[in-house]
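User: I'm curious whether this sequence folds into something compact or stays loose and floppy. Could you predict its structure so I can see for myself?
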Amino acid sequence: MLMKTWHQYVKSLGIPTAEVFDMATVLGSDVTIQNWNINGLPRDMFSTENGIIMDNSRRWSLFIDPQVQAANWIKKMERKNNLQVLKFSFPDYMKKIETSIQNGYPVLIESIEEILEAPLDPLLYKQMFKQAGVWVIALGENVIEYNSNFKLYLTSKLRNPHYLPEVFNKVTIINFALTLEGLQDQLLGIVVAVEKPDLQQLKEELTIQKADNKKALKDTEDNILKTLSETKGDILEDEKAIQILDESKVLSTEIMEKQKRSIIIEQSIEEFREKYKIVSAHSSVLYYCISDLANVDPMYQYSLDWFINLYIGSIQKAEKFKIIEKRCTCLINAFTFDLYNNITRSLFEKDKLLFSFLLCSKIMIAQKKLEENEFLFLLTGGVGGETTTPNPCPTWLLDRSWTEICRLDNISAFNGFSGTILRDATIWKEMYDNFTEDFLVPAQWENQLTSFRRLIMIRVFRADKLISSITNFVKNEMDEKFIKPPPFNISVSYDDSYNLCPLIFILSPGVDPMSALVKFAAGKKMSDKFKSISLGQGQGPVAQAMIMEGSEIGTWVCLQNCHLATSWMPTLEKIFDNLDYDTHPEFRLWLTSYPSDKFPVTLLQKGVKMTNEPPTGLQNNLLKSYISDPVRNPEFYLGCPDHHEMFVRLLYGLAFFHACIQERRTFGPLGWNIQYGFNDSDFDISVQQLQMFINESDDPFEALSYLIGECNYGGRVTDDWDRRLIVTILADYINPLVVSDKRYTFSDAGKCYGLPERSDYQVYINHINAMPVLHPPEVFGLHTNAGITRDLQNSNLLLGSVLKAYGDIAAGGMGETDKHLMMLCTDILNKLPKLFNIEAAYIKFPVTYSESMNTVLVQEMERFNKLLKVIVATLITMQKAILGLVAMSPQTETFSSSLLMAKIPAKWVSVSYPSLKNLPNYVNDFIARMNFLYKWFETGKPPSYWISGFFFTQAFLTGVKQNFARKYTIAIDKLTFDFEVLNVNVMKSAPNDGAYIYGLFTDGARWDRNKGILAELMPKILYDNMPVIWIIPLLAEKYFPGGRYVCPIYKTSERKGLLSTTGHSTNYVLPVLLNTDLPASHWIKRSVALLCQLS
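Assistant: Here's the prediction. I'll summarize afterward.
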């Protein structure tokens, strides 16, 4: 890119230059480059230029080498020179470097991190000096002789390292990441080598022969020039010179003839290879589908060697055809499915559809069946400011949807689309109200909408339906088998492993793979040779001894919970690197770990990875409880002979409760504020206690409720509102009516949610098996709309994860991306208000005993000024970086990516109030908050307060209490709040005591303004605006909630927060009391809350 820009610039100045200019021609040598290729340097121009930069650089080279291409090339190229391969983790690496310097051996240091070891500095800076006429160098306390044949290479496996400027002063940093062209060439050579090994071997021999011929030709030419330059007098009289020239001419002619024959043979080979290019081109696209999966989860790491081994195996197993076109199609299909099976085995459930969709989309983009800008629109909803055109259908079309529709006009296929919304509103509203996969669109758009463009329509109008629509899209574009991942199977993973390949369980809450692994070891007759240890403090040496012993005698070693021993992980990596092919063939290393970015990448790339998650769905959870110990054990099931009916019914209630609270996790914050890892051990201890208390007590309900709700399950619950919820839910499943009422049901959604009449074990199994697969949210205590909220969250999670896995959309130089970034920065800067004048605020609103709100206002202004300064500074820095006035730092790159993906930059988040909004909405919200304070400053204390506009809401609430306490001379710690919901939206005057607040939204319910009570949500309406609420300070001793619902207020819909330095939650605000004509338990199970802002 730099060379191209430079060449164009030189031409524009009128400086004579070749029409086609490339570095290889000017600085390279055909002979040298061909030798590099023979030794493994990829043949693409990018790799060739990398080699030339290394060869011509005055500093030693540090290769960014995630696929280990540079390291492999250097190892082959320098093998004959006694290459020393080292790592900084080797204890004696400096001694070996000193020896290599003295003997003139080349050194390769692998696995370089972002910091270079200080002892290397004299070597990196080439600080040699003469001593007694000999060149020497000082390394630490040692002064050693420097051999001029010494060479140093450094390689890093980091995919995107961020080096400090001082590192660039020490070494020449070369990006050796594999290019698409280079990978295609490698994969083409492999497929031809498998299909026609003799032909590929002939090509490789010809390549070597051509290199030898070129070298011989060059030597001949040099010999001729040398003869001509050394001959004195008339060359025609110099017989020796004439003889040399004649021999050189004959040799040159022979070499030229050999080259001609080689070219003819090579052309015929290339004609054959050309037929397989479709396979290598397709397969290289697949590699780039998996290369960025680590952005989604740090455990999703796959090496190029692993990919190539799978590629070779797939070619060998694929069905044979004599017709090459059919064979190629078969190879493509076989490898795509093999890769899908192997990758999905190592992915969590939530990421399996992600991979299928990414696979499908990247293949379609490569085949020109899908435009990349349309794909990115589906993932992001477009990037740009808010539209100035008003929403034409505000009664049903969301403002977010309208904004995205207007952005769609910028895509050529959707040009003018926004104009059709009002014109064809009836058709679009029908699609919105009664969505089906084959929804109708206006006639003018019918022929323009491809299957992918229909997905864009679904994103815009009904984003909650995207998961099912994407599933069908993959099924139709590829095959149904690409949406049916293989089940968990240790045996298949084991078959893919060998003694130097670790097997890695990626853990998820609620599942322990150890029981399955122990059972598998028994099946392989390895029980006596199976050893395991749970890693933790001080366990490293024990684990190391187990590995060393196991590698010698052929045992299986399992290291559990590697995520708890991150400091020991580099040692584990080194131990495994030192294992060689003398390792016992039966040895296996099993590792278990939750996702961790500290887990060694080398082990992840070498290893076979597996995930196993708890069953999903009410039916599967119930069935698992009943077919597992202890419930399936007849002795246990019949363990309450005097109270069998009670035990069996309460046992089913407990199993239903266990399934219910796990399924609520799928509803996000509506299910639980915090996602808890309820698991089988909670259920096991609870059923044991259930049996014990039924056998020992006639009335076990109070004890069971406490132990199960507060200890077994409740012991995991850290949020007070979640603790209230779990106790409330449990009361529906463990109570006397479950035993006495034969018609008792856990949900009114259907008879299947009741209990069987008979108590036989098989009757309950049949009852569970007869349940439907899908269950309405009401079964879990939630409103029907919770299903829409859940589906929206899942859709956003999927699209966000695909965007991460797609790669860095901010990559590139000065082009459309930079222009767009500059426009975004300018647009935001132009919108932002000025800083508050804090001195003027102190003068106009001084600190007074009777008015605490003055202090609240000034402190809020200071907080917003701090945030505004950060926003302005980062935007200006971004503009300077685009113009090249300052260096593009890692922080600036991250910032630019956030802007392009319409996310709030992390730098802003660190000094901001909580917000889940996208970037345009966040900026508008920020401006609205500052305008609220500006109006307060200009017109005085408002009659009512926009509670959502405060940076630190607790300060405002404390100010309300403080005003009341000082007015009536009451200690502030004796006060609390009462609440009254007013049937108005705007107040003209402030109350005598307390404060009016507005700007809240109901989540999980709505406010019935006619009756003044909580009511159920309307269909598809997820939130409702609350009217003004009067918060009234009163003595805590007079506080009486009565039958009102105690409703928490949160700043965002995420609900969970952290405890800040002030002792307050970063998200939770306070509880309010709301009137209701239903039991409070109804709204508790609905997870009803008030929110200060929507996402």
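Summary: Residues 408 and 414 are 6 Å apart (CA to CA). The radius of gyration is 36 Å.
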